[in-house]
Design a protein that fits this description.
The complex is a heterodimer.
Chain A: H1 2-10, H2 13-23, H3 26-55, H4 58-64, E1 74-75, E2 80-81, H5 84-115, H6 118-133, H7 136-163, H8 178-202, H9 206-214, H10 219-230, H11 232-248, H12 251-256, H13 274-281, H14 288-321
Chain B: H1 25-28, E1 41-52, E2 55-66, E3 70-74, H2 81-88, E4 98-106, E5 109-110, H3 116-122, E6 123-126, H4 137-147, H5 154-164, H6 168-171, H7 184-197, E7 202-206, H8 214-227, E8 232-236, H9 240-246, E9 249-254, E10 257-263, H10 264-269, H11 274-280
Parallel strand pairs in B: 3-8, 3-9, 6-7, 7-8
Antiparallel strand pairs in B: 1-2, 1-4, 4-5, 9-10
Classes of the chains: A mainly alpha, B alpha/beta.
């Protein structure tokens, strides 16, 4: 009896092999290999992307070095290139977009979670999610035919007459320019902030709200002082997702920014962004140096996104650490 | 109640009168009865029905709750005791489908007609699971004071509340640490301190010890005794020993109805209703 008991699991002969075969979990190892492939594939993709950007921008890097980042001349005929106007345009329009989108998006998310009945909230959130799925070229068209005329004949004259003493709001009202691009971008990224913030706010435990309400907080006090701070790291996440989207947005921006590679303090002036210049000028890039310059711009955009995301993570860590560690 | 921070002086509690609401100061400052007779009633509740959507949870409860005593609510899970408690400070309104019928009078004033924010400042609540805010210990206690526009020394009031909740000695050197660094029992006492900071007349506790160990539970029960002179306490508990130890009156609820309401010693020794006897002897629930 003992001998058979001991012998059975080890197995020998036909039955042993059969048992091992039966216990060999094919499904598991196949799943393991597939997910491993997918996981490593992503890293390989990022690596290949970086290497290609790096190699194909070498002429530009050798020619201009670091001063490429600080030069504002853009003269393809004379083969003189500087990235500063594009960096400036990208940062200014993205910043403007966030200034518009953060209050709007956060306000909408709070409204949807705290004030609206659940069924209505779900529907409204669905519609807002749809907004995120509208192709950016459509936003660009809306920008050209609706927003730019309004900005030219309404918003810019108004800003000039009220805040015209600031250098930001001076000069002729073209309509096309940083302001229009910033507003279009702002509208485009609002759904990202709403959608992610709403999920995060919904995940705040009901007990937190009740604790505030039971102390005599109004609904607004509970939402703004307890629920939002509780959810803040997730809300930061939604904002940086929106920022990443705004930095890389190409089509809508190039349709309304005016496409002028120069730096202006005034938001009314035309400008250019990194993504827009790459898309617009690739077809006309005749020399190898020109192409390498455009690819280096791509590399810069990649780096910019990377740096901002890293900063975002640090910011989240810093605010979460400040005496608010949750179990 | 001669406690720190009360601004008003009068104790004009017209308790036994139905004519009630003609005293003008009712609308300015809620009068706080100073140590009143034990027989005085704080809550008069009649015909209280609460339903969530189509489901009625409480089927008409009539009960009077005396001031400056501890009233315990016992009953099996789902009997509606938490719902009853939450209707006392209109916390039922956080559930959108909830509907409340019947009258709840707090010092002869119907709470349905009161400003809900003012009501909740008078009727504080402590929840089943400790739910401190993700803020420092100090800011947790100070929160209610700040939103209520507290005048005077914030730190003094915070210390006073923490002392009342028997937590001061344990946390006085770490007031600016996160509340989440505390143990579960300390967090619950912090929540009690937070509720006490706004000086409520009534304190509702919804199974405050269900997540706590026996030692901490004993501390909290001890706390209830100390709070009695200054506060009316209503506590929901699963634990019958706790009700027997800590309360003066006990109400037994079953399936949304009030079965029996007696002084605690009487309810636990000579219950009038056979269902109460069955429950307290552990035959169901």
């Amino acid at each position: 009896m003992t001998t058979t008991d001991l012998a059975a699991p080890a197995g020998n002969g036909f039955t042993g092999v059969w048992r091992r075969l039966r216990n060999f979990d094919l499904g598991d190892s196949v799943a393991y290999s597939i997910t491993l492939l997918a996981g490593t594939g992503i890293f390989i993709l990022v690596g290949v992307l970086l290497v290609e950007l790096w190699l194909n921008s070498r002429l530009a890097r050798h020619e201009f070095g670091w001063k490429f980042l600080f030069t504002s001349i853009w003269d393809p005929i004379a083969q003189h290139f500087g990235a500063l106007p594009f960096l400036y345009g990208t940062l200014v329009t993205s910043l403007l977009a966030l200034i518009i989108a953060i209050p709007l998006g956060l306000g909408t998310a709070i409204f949807l979670v705290e004030l609206v009945p659940a069924w209505l909230s779900d529907w409204l959130a669905f519609i807002i999610d749809l907004l995120a799925a509208v192709p950016s070229v459509v936003y660009g068209l809306l920008g050209i035919f609706v927003l730019v005329p309004i900005i030219r004949s309404g918003v810019e004259p108004f800003l000039q007459s009220t805040l015209g003493s600031l250098p930001l709001f001076q000069g002729p009202a073209y309509g096309f320019g940083f302001l229009a691009a910033g507003v279009v971008l702002g509208i485009m990224v609002v759904p990202f902030i709403v959608s992610v913030s709403r999920e995060v706010l919904l995940a705040v435990p009901q007990e937190q709200r009740e604790a505030a309400l039971s102390l005599g907080a109004t609904q607004w006090e509970a939402a703004s002082q307890v629920v939002v701070p509780y959810a803040r790291s997730g809300i930061f996440g939604s904002i940086f997702l929106a920022l990443a989207r705004a930095l890389g947005e190409t089509m809508a921006v190039t349709m309304v920014i005016g496409n002028d590679p120069s730096i202006h303090t005034s938001l009314f002036a035309s400008g250019y962004s990194i993504a827009a210049v790459i898309a617009n000028e690739f077809a006309e890039a005749t020399s190898t140096l020109y192409i390498h310059v455009l690819i280096e711009l791509g590399l810069i955009l990649f780096g910019l996104t990377f740096i901002l995301n890293a900063l975002a993570r640090l910011l989240i860590l810093a605010t979460v650490r400040r005496g608010t560690v949750r179990p | 109640m001669a406690s720190v921070g009360t601004v008003h002086s009068g104790n004009n509690v017209n308790l036994k009168s139905e004519q009630s609401v003609d005293t003008p100061q009712r609308f300015s400052l809620p009068p706080k009865p100073s140590v009143t007779a034990d027989s005085s009633l704080r809550f008069k509740i009649s015909g209280l029905k609460v339903s969530y959507g189509p489901k009625e949870v409480l089927h008409g409860i009539d009960i009077n709750i005396s001031s400056n005593v501890v009233t315990a609510l016992i009953g099996p899970s789902g009997c509606g005791k938490s719902t009853f408690l939450r209707s006392l400070n209109r916390m039922t309104e956080t559930v959108r489908t909830a509907r409340v019928e019947g009258d709840i009078l707090l010092d002869d004033e119907n709470i349905a007609d009161m400003d809900v924010v003012k009501l909740r400042r008078r009727v504080g609540m402590v929840f089943q699971r400790p739910n401190p805010f993700p803020k420092s210990i100090f800011d947790n206690v100070a929160y209610g004071l700040r939103i209520n526009g507290h005048k005077g020394s914030l730190s003094e009031s915070v210390e006073h509340s923490l002392r009342r909740a028997a937590l001061w000695d344990e946390v006085k050197d770490q007031l600016h640490k996160s509340a989440y660094t505390l143990s579960g029992g300390q967090q619950q006492r912090l929540c009690i301190a937070r509720a006490l900071a706004v000086d409520p007349e009534v304190l509702l506790l919804d199974e405050p010890c269900s997540a706590l160990d026996p030692v901490t539970t004993a501390k909290i029960e001890e706390l209830l005794f100390q709070l009695k002179p200054s506060c009316t306490i209503v506590i929901v508990t699963h634990n019958m020993q706790q009700a027997a130890r800590a309360s003066d009156f006990t109400a037994f609820l079953l399936e949304g109805r009030l079965i029996e309401y007696q002084p605690t010693p009487k309810l636990f020794t000579t219950p009038a209703d056979p269902r109460t006897e069955a429950y307290i002897t552990g035959r169901f629930g």
